Amino acid sequence: MIATKFGFLFRDGKQVGTERASRPEQIREAVEGSLQRLQTDYIDLLYQHRVDPAVPMEDVAGTVGDLVKEGKVRFFGLSEAGIANIRRAHAVYPVSALQSEYSLWERNLEPEIIPVLRELGIGLVPFCPLGRGFLTGEVKRAEEYPEGDTRRIDPRYQGENYDANVKAAKAVFDIATAMNVKPGQVALAWILQKGDFIVPIPGTKHRKHLEDNVAAGTIRLDPVQMKMLDQALTSGKVSGNRYPDWVMATIDR
To answer: What angle (nearest 5°) sits at the alpha carbon of residue 166, between those of residues 201 and 234?
Structure first.
């Protein structure tokens, strides 16, 4: 399955923003470029990278719908979209999937977004289901990561936030030890048991990580373990925003 995105604005080969990057002509240009680079006749799942406040969602959904009719795209997805824009898009052309951050570590979708996805029959594709490494047991303080690593500017890896979050994540490690599995596998098992419409996409750089992630699909947590994890890492127990303020401003909530 091939999934890709549109909605980036580039200058001199570097991404410089997303505003006005979802205009119909730019969506078509991005799709044609993707088809050529990927050497394929169609894209299975085409996401809008971020909601573009400068372009009506109806124009975005309509353009992707036209591309589906033309056979260049099969399914339409959104990324980090809020309720209003999910509904606006879905009213024009069915949204098949929402890509957004969701994990034990980040529960912002639970109060409102997930109920809407269930209502409309939209799948959820969570990115960072391992909490950017925090739920794997291989975590370090922000300043210990090399230059260029995004965790250096992640508020949850800094100072007192880090200390509080290590304490909150202990429940994951305790259950993993009791089950003789890896903490990351417990985190993935939790998210998989949250609904059959959820398909997480953990970052995987090495074959061993891939094997561990796949094996998480065979792990079943009992109701007591699920409740323990739910309570240990509620939004009130995780300290700090998931992004710096300037990145949070790009999220449609």
So the answer is: 65
